[in-house]
Design goal:
Blueprint (H helix, E strand, L loop, with lengths): L1 H61 L2 H12 L13
């Protein structure tokens, strides 16, 4: 009887250990996936911050009247009064 009780106790303990091991493995896998996602998002954030810095610099540069005039001439085709545009064929 005592041997049977010991076997049952051992089986229960072994079952608990197996379930715990499986749970730990799954948890570790979830942690690795979360860390990978965090790294991806961090890289994306850094790229966006670089883009924002470039755009801020462009906005600040565009406040200069000479830059505004240059943009108007090149992108919009504006000319100053009295200027003549010659087109090549």
């Amino acid at each position: 009887m005592k041997t049977k009780l010991n076997r049952i106790s051992l089986a229960v303990i072994l079952s608990i250990c197996v379930v715990s091991a499986v749970w730990l493995i799954q948890t570790q896998s979830q942690i690795q996936k979360a860390n990978a996602e965090a790294a991806r998002l961090q890289a994306e954030l850094e790229a966006i911050q670089v883009t924002n810095a470039v755009l801020r610099a462009e906005i600040e540069a565009a406040a200069d009247p000479n830059v505004k005039q240059d943009i108007a001439r090149k992108q919009l085709g504006y000319i100053l009064p009295g200027e003549t545009i010659y087109k090549e064929k």
